[in-house]
Amino acid sequence: MSKSPVFLTGCAGFIGMHTTKRLLDQGETVIGVDNINPYYSVDLKRDRLKQLEHPNFHFHEVDISDRQAMEKIWTTYEPKRAINLAAQAGVRYSIENPFAYISSNITGFLVMLELCRHQKDFANLVYASTSSIYGSSTNMPFVEDQMTAVPISLYAATKSGNELMAQSYNYLYGMPATGLRFFTVYGPWGRPDMAAFKFTKAILAGEPLDLYNAGKMKRDFTYVEDIVSGVVAAVNRKPTNKIGERHPIYNLGNNRCEDLPRIITLIEETLGKKALINNMPMQLGDVKETYANIDKAKAELGYSPQTTIDTGVPNFVRWYMDYHK
Fold it and tell me: 212 in a domain, yes or no?
């Protein structure tokens, strides 16, 4: 009997592209969904899709909040596993465009939950959560069972809502789901609104880069290929049959708390060019520090990040220079 395909939303996104590619390399069939929205460069998203040209990849340009369109695709393939990476991302953008987050992150996620719960013999819905749901907590490193009911951005609130929605479907219907809290993902094909991308672009252009809170910020920077290893391990995990235990949540980070200026230094060294700094105040909705405890993911998923920023950041910069010629 052939293996059921993996239904993956957000396949033209940063993590979505890398995850799809890994699954295809492992012999999986992937049903990819993405609406190619213009939050950032549509050309970048189309170029990512070009990396996924494969006989086992079936792409559908659809918005996940479009219930009828999603049902039509789903019933065509009847997948038993799903990975929901489609979301309106970004803490700062959620302050400017809040309705985009409700449509994609809440309505779209509800559509996915409904599709999964009605699928016979459904095995697992893996979905992206975020380190942002820990809010401004200073209790570090963050552990999965600490309080997260204090989001300080709408983006974080929608992701916290996803975890609560999945938990309710787990309780009501016994629907297996796995939540993954990503910590500052970076790497080749990354998003233009993320620090490594913005810093590299500014330094190459000889323009000042905006450094918030005078650079007094720390992040658990996690290389994209390490994140993908966690996602793939999660979707292949066999959930327990006990109601209430079918919805584990894992931190996926690098288990290192890095100073933001260190990222700038690594970019400067790779480019052989110094940065011009424009010190800015702390941004509304942002946090000063993130740091993941990954013991649970190590024990239950075999998650073991391999790439430090000393390797990962130069990898990103080289990709950036090659991509932009």
Answer: no
Q: Answer whether residue 175 is part of any domain.
A: yes
DSSP structure string for 167-229 = HHHHHHH---EEEEEE--EESTT--TTSHHHHHHHHHHHT-EEEEEGGG--EE--EEHHHHHH
Read off φ and ψ for residue 47, nearest 5 degrees. -65, -35
SS (H, E, C) 248-260: CEEEECCCCCEEH
Q: What is the CATH number of the domain that holds 298?
A: 3.40.50.720
Are 149 and 135 in contact, with CB atoms under 8 Å apart?
no
Whole-number Å distance between alpha carbons of 158 and 105? 6
Each residue's pLDDT tens digit, 180-220: 999 999 999 999 999 999 999 999 999 999 888 878 889 99
- What pTM did the predictor assign? 0.95
* Residues designated as active site: 155
Whether the CA torsion 274, 280, 281, 286 is positive or negative: it is negative
CA 255 to chain centre: 17
Q: Are strands 218-219 and 258-259 parallel, antiparallel or unpaired?
A: antiparallel
For residue 270, being part of any structural domain is answered with: no
Tens of pLDDT, residues 7-21? 999 999 999 999 999
